[in-house]
Amino acid sequence: MVRSLGIDFGEKRIGMALSDPDGRLAVTLPTLARTDDREAVRAIAEIARREGVERLVVGEPRGLDGSRGPAAERAAGFARKLARATGLALEMIDEALTSHEAKRELRAAGVDPRKHPERIDALSARRLLQDALDRDR
Question: What is the CATH number of domain 4-136?
Answer without folding.
Answer: 3.30.420.140
